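Q: I'm a student working through a structural biology exercise. My instructor gave each of us a protein and asked us to get a predicted structure, then write a short paragraph describing it. Mine is CMP/dCMP-type deaminase domain-containing protein. I'm not confident about reading structure output yet, so if you can add a plain explanation after the tokens, that would really help. Here is the sequence I was given:
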Amino acid sequence: MVDVISDFFENDDSIRVLSRKNETTGECDLEFDNAFENMRKYMKFAFDEALEALRLEEVPVGCVFVYENQIIGSGRNRVNEMLNATLHAEIVAIRNAERWCQERNLNIYEVMKKTTLYVNLEPCQMCASAVQLLGIPRIFFGACNDRFGGIVTVGNVYDYVENPATMDLVCGLGRSKTIGLLQAFYCQTNTKAPESKRLRKSDDKKAKLLKSLQL
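A: Happy to help. First, here is the predicted structure for CMP/dCMP-type deaminase domain-containing protein. I'll explain a few features afterward.
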């Protein structure tokens, strides 16, 4: 399993730590160290969700929420499937995490204080706001979202609540693969669009992109 994960990210981009919640105090943060050490493992799960989204003609974004070394909520985009514009991967995963907490009689806000989000694409402003409101301390994302990014690119995650706590923000792992998935998505014909408005695109180009990314 470890070798598969290592091969998956072998030729990927450099990882950047954008901010650390203990940066000013210099305190040891074992939770961050553990999250950083295991990021390849959990980002691979996020990519599995993104690939499933692509297969189902959704924007290829997937994510997992990890609490005490276990996935408590996973999600992929389900906007087209459910005809609901709010069902981004993070929102789906939050709902699943909430269900996990309810089944164990746990307070979701207390759980989220010790939870890490791994997602292949920078969350949009809606999802970033939801994550901030839940008090999640760490976000690992693969590629920046130049159009809708709500962490650092278009919006700023610290603008959504009053007196926000500093978060651990790490990006870069899986960047090129995320970009490739998005390119593959926009190469395919949208079969859910009205027949008169469909743009005929090349499935061969999509297949070549995925093959080049070893996906």
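A: Here are two points you could use in your paragraph. Strands lie at 16-19, 62-67, 70-76, 115-121, 138-143, 168-171. The chain has one domain: 2-212. It's a good idea to check both against the output above yourself.
Q: Great, thank you!
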